[in-house]
């Protein structure tokens, strides 16, 4: 945003963007946690299991303070910053560590995928609402709702 420009951003824009970023971050954490468990014969099995358990515990501890309710802006950034600054943990039975910075990279990478998928969905909204707009126009023109609904259903079955 250019402060010298006559076009000022909407006062709701920051709130909407912040909410979108928070929801995308939350969805990315859910996707990471819901991934297939690693194969026990895999060399990284213990590390992947411990990393997932660490993220789950970290996320659950902050669910109410960062992802629910009406709270301050930038909660997604706060969550990632706290994760980044958390202390690495040794994985029992190995000489490996749970790397919080690696988890942050994983969450951000997944968040990019989530946003890409949501962008495609958002671009299709106009197409998805065509039937609703047609129904609305026909009702405004005085056609009965039953006639319009039957007409729309017949067109759907044609395709």
Please explain how this structure is put together:
By secondary structure, this protein is mostly helical. It has 7 helices and 2 strands; from the N terminus they run H-H-H-E-E-H-H-H-H. The chain has a two-stranded antiparallel ribbon. The longest helix has 24 residues. It is elongated.
Descriptive labels:
mainly alpha, single chain, two-stranded antiparallel sheet, 3% strand, 67% helix, elongated, 2 strands, 159 residues
Provide a brief overview of the structure:
The protein is mainly alpha-helical. The protein has helices spanning 13-33, 45-66, 75-85, 100-123, 125-128, 130-140, 145-158, and strands at residues 89-90, 97-98.
Helix and strand content put the structural class at mainly alpha
Order of helices and strands: HHHEEHHHH
Q: Largest beta sheet, briefly?
A: 2 strands, antiparallel
Shape: elongated
Sequence stretches where pLDDT stays below 50 over 5 or more residues:
none
Spatial extent as radius of gyration: 23 Å
Across the major sheet, the strand order is 1-2
Topology:
Layout: H1 13-33, H2 45-66, H3 75-85, E1 89-90, E2 97-98, H4 100-123, H5 125-128, H6 130-140, H7 145-158
Antiparallel strand pairs: 1-2
Helix pairs in contact: 1-4, 2-3, 3-4, 6-7
